[in-house]
Amino acid sequence: MVFEQNLTDDQLKIIEARHHDPFAVLGRHPTKSGVYVRAFLPHTESATVGNNLPMKRVEGTDIFEWTGRSDDLETPYQIHRTTSQNQIQSHYDPYCFPPQLSDYDLYLFAKGKHWHAYRILGSHKRTVNGVEGVMFATWAPNAQRVSVVGTFNRWDGRSHPMRSRDSTGVWELFIPGLEIGELYKYEIRNHHDGSLHLKMDPYCQQAELRPGTASVIFDSNYQWHDKEWMSNREHTKWLHAPHSVYEVHLGSWQKRNDGSFCSYRELADKLVPYVSKMGFTHIELLPITEHPLDISWGYQTTGYYAATSRFGSPDDFRYFVDQCHQNNIGVLLDWVPGHFPKDNFGLAKFDGTALYEHEDPRRGEHQDWGTLIFNYGRNEVRNFLLSSAFFWLEECHIDGLRVDAVASMLYLDYSRQEGQWLPNIHGGRENLEVISFLKEVNTILHQSHPGCIIAAEESTSYPMVSRPADMGGLGFSMKWNMGWMHDILEYMKQDPIHRRYHHDQLTFGLLYAFTENFVLPFSHDEVVHGKGSMRYKMPGDEWQQFANLRLLYTFMYSYPGKKLLFMGSEFGQGNEWNSEKALEWYLLDYPKHQGLLQLVTDLNKVYRESPALHYHDFDAHGFEWIDCNDREQSVLSYLRQGQDSIAVAVFNFTPVVRDNYRIGVPEAGEYEVAINSDSEYYSGSNYSVSQVIQSESTSWSDRPYSIVLNLPPLAGLIIRKKH
């Protein structure tokens, strides 16, 4: 395109959409004799400003100007344009409004200390000088120019270039007249090579339904009804409270008859009553943060502030959380601050440079997963993630986060060969920036939101993961006990005739059980990728498989630590979990599956009602071995204690009945069987077990009293002392 020779450099840069400071050129500016207004108006035949003051086109361009007395034009003013389709349109000039972000907000953000950065960055409905519109802001320090583009300006990056806030790297623009629900992105021109990058808003709170990748202007108007729950949460002593989690992938728990996804509201009406009836204390959601690919299960996040549009609007998600709380169910969110995908519309090379990630792939890329690693050394990146955590807890009333893949974050050599990673400043393999980041996030969240739960999926022996940061720990509330999970599943896979040779796998976990606040997880990761469903991990025929599974769950619910079970495992899903299909609900037409579901329901009830089984989950005072050495019979027994209550747990890991088995107990009195996994109620063999057992004065296993009972085949018993 050829322009007039007398165009200024500033005008040329505006036309070519490469001006770093469009407010210096566009908008209302004083002159020696009055004021002038300059606007860039593509697809415009003619224009006036204010009270029909005619604007003159700069010949050969789409720049329109008016010059006159300052008294003739008040601010804010409107521009009236006749389009190339002969339509008359009016709008307030975005370039007549002053900066909207405060210097203090920008200072906090640059320091990485703005806990609520999502309130200033992203898109937000706002009224400025009596004019309604939408405020946009993003961080792109290596940009020459950033524009807001969308359906409202034909996705034309020349139309709405943003204001640079100098050295902060933040760009902002208030655009009057925009409506909730409009699509937008940021068009970013890199300073170094002039390359263009069309990006979704990292701070957007709603995203376009995939395969679309735009952000959506959103403003929540949801009215919460969970005040009592939120108040009680602040005073919850989660260390001593029952905590049993139902892990759910919303896209495949159930589907509609036509195979499409259920909405957040439909799931609230179906899933919440189901979980409530089973007695779980929490639902943990696989990531519902926006993601482009269904089969990633949500772990390749592109929208760290946006509930995925697959299941409805962000307020529909709030309704789901609200319904959980009104039914006394907490909601935990799987959160992925360790890596993000390479999709061109996302965070990768956001302003044309490695901004959110590291430039060097030895620090910046997970080669196994094809994802990028956050640069935790940048204050603004740390702030992005910290603010995301605050957003879910505050704006969506989430009760806690399960932090994914912490081991991959902690170690610079994670899944890397020699020469593929860079050591820290001390020559070690620990990622010191991540350690600092995790300590900061956990400390601030726990201080700001008492009662929230931050759990780490961490599979290594890194010390003090769930100990306070001021004691030298990472500050998590809890840590998944991956070692226990692997050991017990490996043990249960053994044919019962060989289990006596593997007895140590049952007992080893108690050597470290109280070094962390452990969650015992049978999660989604254990029922995919050829590992088989929980049922088909168990050996033997159908009867033995179900008996073993009932035995395993009874063992988990009596063992020290909080509980987590992935959906479908509660009723004995047959096939491996497939995220593209609904669970096999038809199986509940069969007695053994019904029995397993009933057992899990009763285990939750007994666990919640029995302080002995939960009060000292993280404390050695709540556990004593009765007999851990009966490997020849593959029998295990122990004592759980808490708040003046006692529970005895005994397990027979073989199909051989053990009649008249004597167990030492600390107190005289009557003991009642609270759970018998072999009961007919659970489709077990219902072998003869007395419901109430009177202790005897015979000392046994270094205890002054004992009880005698029959141990059913492949069964667990939880026995409580009657008061």
Describe the structure concisely:
The chain is α+β, with helices and mostly antiparallel strands. The termini are far apart.
Structural write-up:
- This protein has an eight-stranded parallel beta barrel with strand order 17-18-21-25-26-27-28-29. It has a six-stranded antiparallel sheet with strand order 30-31-32-37-34-35. A four-stranded antiparallel sheet has the order 1-2-6-5.
- It is elongated, with a radius of gyration of 31 Å.
- Helix 5 (264-278) packs parallel to helix 6 (314-326) and helix 14 runs parallel beside helix 15 (591-609).
- With 723 residues, it is an alpha+beta fold.
- A hairpin with a 2-residue loop joins strand 9 and strand 10.
- The protein has 16 helices and 37 strands.
Give the key terms:
elongated; alpha+beta; 37 strands; eight-stranded parallel barrel; six-stranded antiparallel β-sheet; 16 helices; 723 residues; 22% helix
How is the secondary structure organized here?
Layout: H1 9-15, E1 27-30, E2 35-40, E3 44-49, E4 53-54, E5 56-57, E6 63-68, E7 78-83, E8 88-92, H2 103-111, E9 122-128, E10 131-139, E11 143-150, E12 163-164, E13 170-176, E14 183-190, E15 196-199, E16 215-216, H3 227-234, E17 244-248, H4 250-253, H5 264-278, E18 282-285, E19 289-290, E20 303-307, H6 314-326, E21 330-335, E22 340-341, H7 361-364, E23 365-366, E24 371-372, H8 379-394, E25 400-403, H9 406-410, H10 432-448, E26 453-456, E27 478-480, H11 482-493, H12 504-507, E28 518-522, H13 534-537, H14 542-558, E29 562-566, H15 591-609, H16 611-614, E30 623-627, E31 635-642, E32 645-652, E33 658-665, E34 670-676, E35 692-694, E36 705-711, E37 715-721
Parallel strand pairs: 17-18, 17-29, 18-21, 21-25, 25-26, 26-27, 27-28, 28-29
Antiparallel strand pairs: 1-2, 2-6, 3-4, 3-7, 5-6, 7-8, 9-10, 10-13, 11-14, 12-13, 14-15, 14-16, 19-20, 22-24, 23-24, 30-31, 31-32, 32-37, 33-36, 34-35, 34-37
Helix pairs in contact: 5-6, 14-15
